[in-house]
């Protein structure tokens, strides 16, 4: 019996360029009569999402959909892919994650237009060469059985490759040619079988995120550094090793050798790297800041943590302020999961009046001047406008659902009241997860920073986000510099000089505790507590 699917009939009738086939209904079709063969006649399709079904095999006819630019096949039961997949020359995004694939056809190397390739959560043991995929930006091959990275991955031709996510495999080695990838900014090789990594890894010019946790390194000091320190500390260590290797082999110039005299042994270099300090100011009963949590907000978005960073120095260089703003955006996308797990808000402390209350208000009654806006608007209008914007973008992109950057709006769906932080003058200074108030926005002149992190999940999520934010701020050197640092403001400094300076100058961040109270004045939480900021690589001073 021929299988005829209503979804495909509609796509044919309306000449659709996008088709989504998902879930139990589609699985029922498959179990009854298999795939509707008319699917492979939809040659105008540029987006096909065939996911979350019991699909076990993809027909060779998939190769006839030559106009596909996006093919999503995740969360099926596929055991193989046809060689004809190579016919999809326009394919830019291919997601075949969460299947049962043990191999990938060699022909996949012919997908020269591919931008994002996701083959994670399978059983793949050997991956074909990707050397010809010269347009690839993101490669995701985590949670497989790979013993090495794909052949050709170190090719200089892969000049656009920016992310390699290969965690939870059996990978035993990285080659020194990794430094030939000019735009690599994220490398995740956590939970593999690495015993060492090449020092040349530190020479990757754009590498900002490196995760090597869960490997058993022969160099125990390096292993400890990997588990406890941010990326910069790990790369600094490798840079020191590389420098010594080059000096030992006579590849360094005499002027560079002279710099070595200023250092000591490699172990001492590591000690210098890990001496950055967070100075925690204990909560002062008379002058300390508190945030009172009302019962109304508990059913909306109940978890909140706050702290204050003192003596901030955003004038350290021309770019430091912009980098800090970019950092918050980056954390919202990553650890905050596009604001769906948590939201960060930063305020200029001098613009906030005590006492501060974490409350919930009816949408029409919540009035806020959104960040970078001049007029005050209601929470109701703000959310309505954002939902309309998301829907318009969905239609423009011909999607079935709104984009990931708008998913956080679902957190307010059907909520009778909206969460907000209100200062002592009754001003709403933040409306999570939507926006901060323009009245308390930070500037280059901000010296004392009030930080809030809120979540609907749990308090631990707030702590992890706050910890990560403070670690990154410390790493950026946002604390007030010592007098000898200030002379370099605005000057052009080469990379090696900056690396040397980072070893000489201790970075410091001053963080003041903020208490979270209930309406009766009982303390619910305080941040940072003694259990927070667990990082042996950073010196934590806990003042009383």
From TrEMBL:
InterPro entries: B3/B4_tRNA-bd (IPR005146), Leu-rich_rpt (IPR001611), Leu-rich_rpt_4 (IPR025875), Leu-rich_rpt_typical-subtyp (IPR003591), LRR_dom_sf (IPR032675), LRR_R13L4/SHOC2-like (IPR055414), Phe-tRNA-ligase_IIc_bsu (IPR045060), Phe-tRNA_synthase-like_B3/B4 (IPR020825). Residues 248-268 are annotated as: Disordered. Pfam families: LRR_14, LRR_4. Residues 251-265 have a biased composition (Basic residues). GO terms for biological process: phenylalanyl-tRNA aminoacylation. SUPFAM superfamilies: L domain-like (SSF52058). It comes from the Eukaryota. Residues 305-478 form the B3/B4 tRNA-binding domain. The keyword Disulfide bond does not apply. The keyword Repeat applies. Keywords: Leucine-rich repeat, Repeat. This is Leucine-rich repeat-containing protein 47. It comes from Mytilus edulis. The lineage of its organism: Eukaryota, Metazoa, Spiralia, Lophotrochozoa, Mollusca.
């Amino acid at each position: 019996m021929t299988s005829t699917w209503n979804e495909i009939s509609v796509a044919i009738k309306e000449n659709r360029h996008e088709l989504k086939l998902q879930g139990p209904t589609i699985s029922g079709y498959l179990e009854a009569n298999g795939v509707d063969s008319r699917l492979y006649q939809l040659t105008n399709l540029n987006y096909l999402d065939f996911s979350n079904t019991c699909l076990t095999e993809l027909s060779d006819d998939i190769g006839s959909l030559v106009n596909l630019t996006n093919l999503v096949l995740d969360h099926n039961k596929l055991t193989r892919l046809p060689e004809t997949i190579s016919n999809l020359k326009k394919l830019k995004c291919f997601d075949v994650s969460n299947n049962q694939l043990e191999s990938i056809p060699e022909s996949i190397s012919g997908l020269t237009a591919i931008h994002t390739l996701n083959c994670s959560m399978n059983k793949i043991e050997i991956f074909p060469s990707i050397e010809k995929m010269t347009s690839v930006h993101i490669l995701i091959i985590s949670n497989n059985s790979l013993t090495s990275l794909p052949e050709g991955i170190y090719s200089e031709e892969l000049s656009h490759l920016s992310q390699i996510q290969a965690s939870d495999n059996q990978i035993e080695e990285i080659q020194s040619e990794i430094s030939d990838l000019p735009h690599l900014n994220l490398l995740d090789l956590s939970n593999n079988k690495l015993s060492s990594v090449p020092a040349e890894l530190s020479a990757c010019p754009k590498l900002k995120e490196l995760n090597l946790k869960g490997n058993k390194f022969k160099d125990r000091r390096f292993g400890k550094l990997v588990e406890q320190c941010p990326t910069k500390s790990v790369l600094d260590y490798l840079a020191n090793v590389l420098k010594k290797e080059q000096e030992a082999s006579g590849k360094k110039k005499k002027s560079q050798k002279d710099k070595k005299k200023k250092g000591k042994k490699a172990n001492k270099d590591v000690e210098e790297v890990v001496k950055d300090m967070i100075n925690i100011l204990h909560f002062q009963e008379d002058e300390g800041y508190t945030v009172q949590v009302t019962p109304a907000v508990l059913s909306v978005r109940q978890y909140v943590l706050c702290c204050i960073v003192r003596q901030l120095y955003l004038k350290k260089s021309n770019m430091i302020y912009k980098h800090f703003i970019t950092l918050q955006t980056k954390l919202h996308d990553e650890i905050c999961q596009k604001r769906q797990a948590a939201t960060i808000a930063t305020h200029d402390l001098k613009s906030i009046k005590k006492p501060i209350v974490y409350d919930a208000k009816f949408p029409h009654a919540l009035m806020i001047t959104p960040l970078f806006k001049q007029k005050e608007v209601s929470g109701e209008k703000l959310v309505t406008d954002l939902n309309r914007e998301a829907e318009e973008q969905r239609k423009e992109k011909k999607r079935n659902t709104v984009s990931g950057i708008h998913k956080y709006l679902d957190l307010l769906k059907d909520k009778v009241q909206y969460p907000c932080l209100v200062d002592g003058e009754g001003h709403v200074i933040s409306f999570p997860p939507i926006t901060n108030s323009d009245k308390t926005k930070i500037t280059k002149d901000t010296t004392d920073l009030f930080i809030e992190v809120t979540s609907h999940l749990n308090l631990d999520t707030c702590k992890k986000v706050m910890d990560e934010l403070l670690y990154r701020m410390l790493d950026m050197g946002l604390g007030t510099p010592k007098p000898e640092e200030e002379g370099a403001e605005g000057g052009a400094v080469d990379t090696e000089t900056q690396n040397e300076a980072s070893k000489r100058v201790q970075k410091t961040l001053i963080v003041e505790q903020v208490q979270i109270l209930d309406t009766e004045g009982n303390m619910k939480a305080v941040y940072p507590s003694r259990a927070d900021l667990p990082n042996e690589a950073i010196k934590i001073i806990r003042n009383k």
